Amino acid sequence: SINDRMETLQRRDFEYLNKFERKVSEELLDANLKFEIKKRTKSIYSIRRKMKNQNVSFEEVYDKYAIRIILEADKEREKATCWQAYSIVTENFSPNPTRLRDWISSPKSNGYESLHTTVMGPEGHWVEVAFRQSSGGRIAATFVPGRREHHPFSLQSCFLSLQNFRSLVFPQRI
Predict the structure, then answer these.
(1) Among the listed residues 16, 115, 37, 34, the one whose alpha carbon sits nearest the alpha carbon of residue 72
(2) Is the pLDDT of residue 39 over 90?
(3) What is the DSSP string of 3-32?
(4) Which of 37, 43, 88, 166 has an alpha carbon 20 to 30 Å from 127's alpha carbon atom?
């Protein structure tokens, strides 16, 4: 079941994302970039919804893991800094060429500006990486891939308990 697979992943998630984050952080620090990294795993509900809506298997869900890199730069260097960080990450991890989304050059109608890609992380797992600027304090209320509501999050808050999962996925029928 999805729940069993996610429980297995959950046991390895923290170390896996920490390993990925350490490598990315080292490389960004070597480039003298100022940044903060947030990480998360996709919720069971979001994975199930994606599998159903896109008719894909569990293994075909590319963004079970995600990090966002929040960069600090002068206003005139914001876009260039995002692309520089993108280049650093994709020099170290192979990107999936079909999974690049550029909302830095062409922001969404709601003003959302971010650059998203999916890379093959350590141990052969896909990791979605989002790059954006810290300007305007918009970050915390903007990015959580795969979620309808966007709010601040922690890795732990993204895991649904089995009870919540069951109530969301298998609602009681009247």
Answers:
(1) 34
(2) no
(3) HHHHHHHHHHHHHHHHHHHHHHHHHHHHTT
(4) 166
Q: pLDDT: is 146 or 55 the higher one?
A: 55
Query: 93-104, pLDDT tens digit by residue?
Result: 999 999 899 999
Whether the Cβ atoms of residue 135 and residue 113 lie closer than 8 Å to each other:
no
Long-range contacts of 106-113 (CB under 8 A, 24+ apart): 111/138, 112/142, 112/143
Q: State both tokens at 159.
A: 């895991």
The confidence band for 9, taking pLDDT boundaries of 50, 70 and 90, is low
Query: 147 versus 9: which is more confidently predicted?
Result: 9
Distance CA 128, CA 95 (A): 10
In tens, the pLDDT along 47-62 reads 889 899 999 998 888 7
Which token pair is 79? 């876009």
What whole-number distance in Å separates Cα of residue 174 and Cα of residue 103?
43
